[in-house]
Structure formats: C-alpha cells, structure tokens
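Minutes, project check-in

Agenda point 3 was the complex the collaborators sent over. CS summarized: two entities, 663 residues total, and the question is how they sit relative to each other. Sequences were read into the notes so everyone works from the same version.
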Amino acid sequence: MTDNTLLEVKDLVKYFPVPGKQNSVVHAVDGVNFSIKKGETLGLVGESGCGKSTVAKSIVRMHKPTSGSIFFESRDIARIGARDLKPYRKKIQMIFQDPYSSLNPRMTVLKLVAEPLIAQKLVSTANQARDLVIEILNKVGLSAEHTSRYPHEFSGGQRQRISLARALIIDPELLVCDEPISALDVSIQAQVINLLQEFKSERSLTYLFIAHDLSMVRYVSDHVGVMYLGKMMELCNSEQIYKTALHPYTRGLHAAIPIADPDAARAKKISAIQGDIPSPISPPRGCRFHTRCSECMKICREEEPELKDVGGDHLVACHLYTMR
Amino acid sequence: MSSLLKVKNLHTSFFTQDGEVKAVKGVSFHLEKGETLGIVGESGSGKSVSSLSILKLLPPAGRIINGEIMLDDKKLVKADRSTMRDIRGGKIAMIFQDPMSSLNPLIPVGKQVEEMIKTHGNHSKKELKKMVLDLFEKVQIPDPSKRYDSYPHEFSGGMRQRVMIAMALSCKPSVLIADEPTTALDVTIQDQILKLLRNLQDEMQMSIIFISHNLGVVAEICSRVMVMYGGMVMEYANINDIFKHPKHPYTMGLLQSIPSIDQDKAVALQSIPGSPPDLSNPPTGCPFHPRCRYARKICSVQVPPTSEISEDHGSRCWLLSKEAPVNNNPFSEQGSSND
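CS then shared the predicted structure for the full assembly.
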C-alpha cells in the first residue's frame, strides 16, 4: 500500500440471507480486493448481480460487510459503529442512479442541499448555509432562484445536478457514483459526465464510478475493475481493458457493446457471451465464469483462479494466464 | 411505390387537465418489407406515441387528431375495434421495454403464448402446445418442454424478453414494433437478443420498427433511421448517412455526446446544452432551437420545412434552406471548409 492510497478494500465479503431459506445466502460480494489512489477514478463494470453496487454501498457503509476490511486513509471502517463513522460520512459521499427516488419530494432544493451541512454541524446560521448552498448550486449549473423549488419541478439531468450539489457541499474526498447517468437522456449524459470531470480536476476528487456503459467507464476512469458474480475478474488501467483485455469475460463484454458506427458494427465477428448469469445463491464451482466461457478448461471447473498480477499493473483471475 | 406500412402527417395529442399536449406533430414515414427502421429520440420525443398510434393502443387521454396510417391498403385510423383486434398481434405485433410487467405473473408462460395464438385462430390443444414449443425453440429458450410450465418470475430478464418475442411472432406478423426491447437488459444479453431478432427477421421476412435511444444498438440492427425530437421527425436517412453524413445539428449533437471506445480522454465530451422541451409548453418554431448552437432568428419563429438532401435523406433544418447563411453553417460547403 503506497502512501497516497485513499481507499483500500481487502477481501470484502457481503452475503445476504435468503428470506425463508435458512441455509442459503446470496453471495453478492465474495472476496474483492482493490485500492484507489487519491485523485484517481476507479471504474467498476459488470452485469447486473455482479456485486458492483453492493461494493459501493459497503464502502459508504449502507451495508455492514460480512467480513473483510475497508481501509480509508489507513483506518478500517468496515465494522466501526455509527458514532465513529460520522467523520467518514463527511469524507465519503455517494450519488445514485435514479435522481427521481433519491431526493425527498417534500423538501425544497435549499433544504435538500443544506441537509448534509446541518447533519455534520458545519454551519451555525441559516444564512451561512444558504450562501454555501447557492455557491455549490452555481457550480453545478443551477442558480439561486432554484432554492425554493421542489424536486418534481426539475428534469432528470437537473435532479442529478442537485444530487451532486448535495454530495459535494461538504467537500468530500471520495465520491461514489452508482450508475449516475443511466437514467438520463443521451444528450444530458455528457453534461453530467463533463461536470464530474470538472470537479475531479478542480478539487482533486477521487471517484468510484460504477456503470454498465463500458465506453463511458473507459472515458472517465484511470483504472477499471471488471466484476462477475461477486468476484473481481480483471483489474488494470483503462487503456489496457480495451486494447489488451485478457479475461475471456472482459473480451466478451467488449464484443457485446453496440458500436455507434454501422460499418464497424457489421464487421464485428467475435461472438459475445452465451447464456445467462448464474444465480448468486449457488454460484458455479471453480471459476465462476466457466459456465459461459468459450475457453473453459478442466481446471476451470474445479479450481477457482486467483486474481494475479501478470505484469504491467494488470491483474487477472483466469487459469489461462496463471498456469504459465 | 407500395410500402408495407405508411404513416402520413400523423398528429397525436393528449388531453390533460392543463389542456392539449401535442406529443406527435406531423410524423410521416414508410416501412418496406423485410427492412428495419430505427426511431431514435430522447424521452418525450414522441417515438413511443407514434408507434402506439399505429396500433391504436393510446391511453384514454390520447387521441389521433389527424393523419393517415396505411397497412397494405387498409386504413387504420378509422378502423373499427374488430379490425384492430385482428391487426394487433396478427399483422402488427409489439414487444416492450420491460418484459416483467408485460407478462402475467400468475400464469405459466406457455399458457400465455397459447392465449395469443388462440385469439387469432382455431387449433386443438395438442396443436397449440406443439406450436408454443416450436416457438420457444425458435427464440432459443433452452429445454422448452420444461420451461412451458414455468412462471415469469422463474425466468431471467433476457429469457422473459425471449418469451415476449415468441408471443409476438406466434401469429407470423408482417410488422414487429420493438419499443426499447433491450434497454432493461445487460449488454451481453442485449447482444444475444439483437442477434436473435436479426436471425428471425431473415427467416420470417418480417419488417421491424426498432425504437431506441441507444445509437449503438441502432447502428447494429437498423437499415434506415428516423431521428425524432419534440414530436417531429428532425432527420431521416439510411444508416450510413445518419452516422457518416448527418445533416441536422441535433443528430450531430447526439453522435458527439457518446464517447467512442477510443475517445481521447483529454477532450471533454461535446454535450448538448439545456434539456428536452416541455411538451405542454413547447418552444415556438423549431423545437430544437433553444439548444441549437446554430440557431438564428428564423428558427424561433417558424418550423423549418423538411429539405431533401437525396432520395431517402431529409432534414428539418433552416440551415439547409437556400437562404441559409454561409458562415457558421456546418452544411454549406464553404462553411464546413472554413471550420
């Protein structure tokens, strides 16, 4: 662990009980390791049910991990209590996918955006709070006149700006973005992404960026992690993930992205991944991806590959590369 | 030219407490046999309302105000209920974005597909089951005879969408309307469904209207594209022209706002400023003018006519008129070379 590591996740495990079935659990996250350096963006991609959102929610401690550690500035916050957690709530903030359900419809924008300030006792007077709210609203492209309005008066893109203002007003160090643009119209997505990028350079913010749109993830991230059924399959810098992806799953995902170029789309030959994602209640033995992998070998069905460095800051969990 | 489906000057409005909301304002298009027409647009662009109008499946507040819809030589706007019943599912079938809410959770999927076939013809029980099993095989549902008795909740999203496709294809429709059929699915599953649709289209010689907001998906499956905004068709062209030679600032903006897979990270994405128009209070003139960087005075006053660039490529933009300025005009030869 180098000095400027902001967040380090170690052997993170989160199981959820299955209602009505005592002995079975959902293996949402099953031993995930990664770290994010200060000022960097880590992108997490994967299909639904791969555990990427559970990782995010564990980091902001909306979930208490089953086991494992989450080091934030060298302190393990995985199992500390609510009181000890409070200073970290200021440092780690999150924005969600759906700006329609993540803002209280009965609060004005002023109240919504000022709430974190008040919860963290960072302001003493209402005027002070108001000034700070207007300042941050201006930064996200809204203005003072919006403070007295309610969420329903805004479009999806504007609501996501309000969420962003709410997260940034207490000047966090890590911003966890769980699919921040998937609910937005195409022409609005770029606006929000550009805003996130501006804040990154201006405040040297660190991001954990979760999305299923791979080209967007590549565009915003420095490093990209690919998750499948609760496991990290590949982790490397964002250029490698497309140019020299190693894991068959990553290559399959790559092949499945629709390309907005009719010539390229038609010339595409690599076949994408067959079949459905297996149930996380009873994940396959051995490599979790072996049931859908076109290069499955005997060992893949029996032994689980470990995430190993294959050189050049490139980690992959696949027997194809660890055998050598 | 006799097209399979022709829509002419379609106007559809919703009558709400706050007055008339014009969702579709003069949409015209045609669909040929065996082709896939893409309709691209953001929320509120009128893409779904246009397709629901064809089937007359509008919610109670919605009404077709004007226009003509012709399927072969049948006029659909004035058609009565029983004619529409035969057409829905029989001639024109539809699949939706969310396959969970389109299936009845209390009935096994096999029975639900049977119901569709029963509505459109007389078959014995044995025949019906065989037809359903064949359909399941066609849409590549593994182990059809076992899955016949399963309930929707036992299926994954992709499998449910396959059931919906099986249901839509059960009466061999000549037109399939697919409204964002892959939006709720993962990319890997999306890829599988798109391949399936393409294969089935070849096999059954069916025409598809494919509604999507995802330009990548459209590039993969469509042969012609129509770009909608604020209830109007802004541009239509074949797939290559739309992506390579767009002739409308909105189409250009859409294409620039999605990062390509080898996008330079140092360059900020070109976003379209502002947000889509409020349909109950639409802007005057061209619906896109408040967000258009080439907007001039005339754009806010008068709706631009559709200029034909070539036989099957048209664009609704004042920049293409003869009087358009040469400077700051991406479509004039001089303007673009200055750029």
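Noted in discussion: The mean pLDDT of chain B is 90.
Follow-up: revisit at the next meeting once the mutant set is ready.
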